[in-house]
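dumping the sequnces here before i forget
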Amino acid sequence: MDNIEFNSHTSNEYNQELKDIRSSVLNMGGMVEKQLQKAMQSLLQGNIKLARKVIKKDLGINAMEIKIDEECTQIIAKRQPAASDLRLIIAVIKSITDLERIGDEAEKIAKCAQYLISETYNGEYYSELEALSTLVSVNLSKALNALARLDAEEALKIAINDEIIDTEFEKLNKEIISHMSSNPIELEKTVRLSWAAKALEKIGDHTKNICEYVIYLVKGKDIRHADLNAIKEEYF
Amino acid sequence: MNTQKMTNNVIKERSIEQILEEHTHTVGKPFCENPKIRAKGVDVFYDDNQAIHDVSLDIDRNEVIALIGPSGCGKSTFLRCLNRMNDTIDICRVSGELLLDSYNIYAKNQDPVLLRARVGMVFQKPNPFPKSIYENVAYGPKIHGLTNNKAELDYLVEDSLTKAGLFNEVKDRLDAPGTSLSGGQQQRLCIARTISIQPEVILMDEPASALDPIATAKIEELINDLRQNYTIVIVTHSMQQAARVSQRTAYFHLGKLIEVGETDKIFTNPEHELTERYITGRFG
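..and the predicted 3d for all of it:
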């Protein structure tokens, strides 16, 4: 059942409701992507105004989560969705929780940026952080594309890719920790740096979750907590 | 706008026909070990029109199996083969093998009346006899000679009404006409009447479609209780009902058995495209 069409129900209103929900999720995804990008930009460019904007904008993302949740509740109550429709609603409800948390992580990065800018940090490890954020952003963007196109194969690739992010994070974090011990005066600043790196790693995890929901939606298989390479062999 | 809609519909119809043409065998799990009823290569014709095409399906002991599908898909026709209710239609012809345990349902020496005592039926509209509540339930055991005296008959009537979840509501008015009860109560009376002759299988053809949600919930609860002692085959148009009451679901389309599987799977992740389309409301 890989060929899912959500616009062929007898009820056109139902088609429209499902279409609206899908576009709302993708909208929310787009907003979250921008938040991440701007939070990193504020940090790297020392733009405190932009950091504040990111923090403020997170409220909008929270509101969006509540709105989409409510729309899903209405669809469940009115339509009693089944099969791929049901999996879509479940995948949406779960995805928006992860998207909202990605928003929270972006906000954390912006708060770290605020602190580091106000403390005039010298920018050491910024390039490494930027490299990590690029990996994370690319993965997030690909995951949202996979969700839009209902591409389970791509979603699995992206989920497997999260390992690279984890490895890069560990590497960077080790360096930051050793910097902490050799420069205890800069401890508070480097802690913020470590927090920002951790936030990026978490965004990677949330992205992976979204990929798992895409696979559930398309293939009807719950692959959470499973060995992804084994899943690849079995289902793809 | 209208042209666009029409074009879409034509495309949809064609693709369903194509899917059906390509459909060669039932997907999922139509068979089980030691079934209560086994249907093998069953065809049903009304004159020259074939209503059922080569259906093979096992019905397991003490399971509730739901038969679903769009109107005219053959689910009721198939149900009616299981206790030879189709015999009452002159132009109807059934071929293939239908076994109850290892016993041929369509054997020439088979008495349909005795068969229907083993395979009881509950219909869409409650149809109590124009008799008292007591007599509605006592009638079957009397003609089949299931009891020896009045005390035994009284016990059987009470037991059947209790099993049908109706006894407490009617115990003070067993002499009142069956038709004086509410729709939901009448349907439970019909179920009590079916159980009273101690069948092995109960066939239900849309048993709750004429009832309100509370009466429906009571019938569904009852189906769940009855499963302990009986095998139940239910035809329903309500997908939610099929999902709630059955352990397995069989999907029929234009006389073909498309897919059979565990109900949990059918309603979350069906294998066949037609099943998916039907349960998600994609036929226009």
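The radius of gyration of chain B is 20 Å.
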